[in-house]
Amino acid sequence: MNHSIHSADRSTHLKIVVVALVAGIAVAALGISARTSSDYSQTAQVVKAGKAITVTSSNASMVR
């Protein structure tokens, strides 16, 4: 049994590449299927500006 990737033979390297490729495809397929199965409707909502207000963090009175 080889405990180092450097001393592994050609078939071991091929197995590692195949397993990584299959895992990558599985993750991509899972991500695509999770995204397309949900019903995300992208609609624009109009936000109208209201009355202007002043927001402060102190309780001091404002002098004009």
Would you write up a description of this structure?
With 64 residues, the chain is an all-alpha fold. The protein has a domain at 1-41. Helix content is 44%, strand content 0%. The protein is built from one helix and no strands. The longest helix has 28 residues, at 10-37.
List the helices and strands and how they pair.
Blueprint (H helix, E strand, L loop, with lengths): L9 H28 L27
Structural class comes to mainly alpha
Percent range for helical residues?
40-55%
Beta-strand residue fraction:
under 5%
Radius of gyration: 29 Å
Question: Counting H and I runs of at least 4 residues, what is the number of helices?
Answer: 1
Rounded mean pLDDT is 80
- Sequence stretches where pLDDT stays below 50 over 5 or more residues: none
Question: How many beta-strand elements?
Answer: 0
Q: Biggest sheet, in brief? A: none
> Can you tell me the overall shape?
elongated
Order of helix and strand elements from N to C terminus: H
Distance between the termini: 84 Å
Question: What's the short story on this structure?
Answer:
This protein has a domain at 1-41.
List keywords for this structure.
1 helix; 64 residues; mainly alpha
